Amino acid sequence: MKSFNLQENVLFGDKQAKAEPLHVDEHGRILRFALRPGQEVREHSAPHSPVNIIILKGHGLFSGGDGQEQSFGSGEMLLFAPGEQHAIKALDEPLVFLVILHEAPNPDRDKA
After folding, report:
1. How far from 108 is each of 18, 41, 69, CA to CA, in Å?
2. How many of the other CB atoms lie within 10 Å of CB of 5?
3. Residues of the chain predicted below pLDDT 50
4. For the CA atoms of 22, 77, 94, 1, what is the dihedral angle to 10 degrees?
5. Residues 98 and 51 sit within 8 Å (Cβ to Cβ)
C-alpha cells in the first residue's frame, strides 16, 4: 500500500503550471497539478485515456470538447472522455487538482 497527503508539499512553477507525478505504473498515472493565479494548462487531450480531475483547492475555469469555459472548485470532479480536448486556467487564487489517467506514458506511441 502507498499513501499520499495530497495537501502537503505542493510544488508550484514560477512561470507555468506544475505537474507532479505522484504515481506512475503500467496501468496509469496520477498527477498533481498546481497553478498560481492566472496560470493555465493549454488545450490538449489524452488520446488513449479518460481524464479524471479532482479539484483539491481553489477555483478555476475548465473547458471541454465544446470549448465553453465553466468555473469549478474544491471538492468537484470532472470527467473528460478519451481524446476530448480540455483546458484549465486558475482564477484569482492557487488551483490544485489531481489528474487520474488510465494509460502509462509510452514514448513510442507519443512519437506517432
Report:
1. 24, 24, 33
2. 7
3. 109-112
4. -20
5. no
pLDDT at site 108: 56
What secondary structure letter does DSSP report for 93?
S
Domains of the chain: 18-104 (2.60.120.10)
Whole-model pTM: value is 0.89
The pair phi, psi for residue 29, each rounded to 5°, is: -140, 150
Cα gap 84→49, rounded to integer Å? 9
Cα dist from 46 to 36, 41, 43, 75, 101, whole Å: 23, 13, 11, 23, 8
pLDDT recorded at residue 103: 75
